[in-house]
Amino acid sequence: MEKINIAIVGGGLAGLVSAIHLKKSGLDVTLFEKDAYPNHKVCGEYLSKEILPYLKLLGVDLMDLKPTKIDKLTFSNSSGKTVNTMLPLGGIGVSRYALDHFLFKKALEIGVNIIKTQVNNIQFIKDEFEITTGNNEEVHAKIVLGAFGKRSLLDKKLKRDFISQKSEWLAVKSHYKLDEFPDDLVMLHNFRGGYCGLSKTESGAINVCYLASFKSFKNYKEPTLFKKEVLSKNPHLKMFFEKAVPLFEKELSIAQISFGQKTVIQEHILMLGDAAGLIHPLSGNGMAMAIHSAKIASECVLEHTTKQSFSRELMEKQYQKEWESHFKNRLRTGWILQKILLSPVFSEISQLLISIFPFLLPRIISKTHGKPVE
Ligand SMILES: Cc1cc2nc3c(=O)[nH]c(=O)nc-3n(C[C@H](O)[C@H](O)[C@H](O)COP(=O)(O)OP(=O)(O)OC[C@H]3O[C@@H](n4cnc5c(N)ncnc54)[C@H](O)[C@@H]3O)c2cc1C
User: Fold this and answer.
1) Which numbered atom of ligand 1 lies nearest the CA of 276?
2) Given a cut of 80, is residue 16 above it in pLDDT?
3) Ramachandran angles phi, psi of 54, nearest 5°
4) Are 189 and 155 in contact (CB under 8 A)?
5) Per the count of CB atoms within 10 A, which of 191, 307, 328, 345 is most buried?
6) Protein fold of 2-166+258-367
């Protein structure tokens, strides 16, 4: 049976960044990822700038990917009425295909041990973890970071409460080509039962990603019809779909997206990124939060491994405290924002307020974002 020091389960943004942080700090890290790189992921692909300084300190300069620089937002309600605003901090447009692959290559380059396998179970026994992989191998680890995203078979194995609750959201994503689409703009268009984000990525492709309630989707059964009958009721989306050329043979979709409360620590596993809590995508801040949580967790792990007095219990308490101070309010604001913008009545009122007091929108947006992380 193999014995390792630190295991990271899940090689998305949170997992890869914590692996890079810990390895750069001199620790031995093994990361388990079930999928091969590169691959497309359902995501709005707008990354808030707040985490760029931190990544640069780790030797990861995302500007190498030549992302688009985005500092404008156009928001429309389902009838197409728009509000335009500047984004307080702004962000970059980068595909998950390029971003995750870039981080994966960095991690490999500095010697992170990356194992391509699914983790089927994690148990905490006698102050260490027993990890069972897809090949039915057992690995023992002193510390486990759970970076397995919004929904994984491990959530069931770990008996996490949110997994038994109904989750009514699904999301669909695809890339399109439309030359006239501006580089510096993210569009957020409402439709009945959801909203759709559009922004340009590093390849010039426009990422189109929408979140819809299952209730609104279920009568249409497949995305093409839903796009035609529901999304295209918003004139901006209608015009986009008429002009733009799809670049994917088939759209990617995921279902059962849960915004329910999650535990930040479970069975002594420090949860990172979406595994600790998913912010409503409308805020465009989930990726930055995943990366920021990787930083906080890595710092706690480092203190635990270098200071004898900083026990496992103290490490867990510290991580929980820091996670809550950085993210709890943001998740709540994202939740309120989503409620308002998806309610036809509230959305009309808020749109009217925003058009009278245009400074309100950037203020609301900045409430879902953090300060630059260094
Ligand atoms: C519709 C939608 C749009 C969004 N748009 C944006 C946006 O524009 N901007 C933004 O900042 N955020 C956005 N987000 C949020 C963002 O995508 C997530 O917050 C971010 O991907 C979280 O990263 P992560 O590393 O926690 O999880 P992920 O990136 O999902 O990585 C988890 C990894 O774990 C692996 N894994 C899972 N289970 C196992 C297992 N058992 N064994 C091994 N590996 C496993 C998976 O294969 C995956 O690679 C959006 C989310 C949704 C749903």
Assistant:
1) 26
2) yes
3) -65, -45
4) no
5) 191
6) FAD/NAD(P)-binding domain (3.50.50)
From the list 351, 373, 365, 374, the residue with the least C-alpha distance to 90 is 365
Probe residue for ligand 1, chosen from 18, 40, 42, 43 as the CB with the greatest number of ligand atoms within 8 Å: 43
Give the start-to-end residue ranges of the domains of the chain. 2-166+258-367
pTM over 0.90: yes
Proportion of the chain above pLDDT 70, given as a percent: 91
Each residue of 214-238: pLDDT tens digit? Answer: 888 988 978 889 999 999 999 999 9
**152 close to 275: Cβ distance less than 8 angstroms:** yes
Q: Ligand 1, residues 41, 148, 186, 201: which to mutate, most atoms within 8 A of Cβ? A: 148
Highest average pLDDT, of 11-15, 192-196, 364-368, 369-373, comes from 11-15
Name residue 200's beta-bridge partners.
206
Which amino acid is it at 342? L
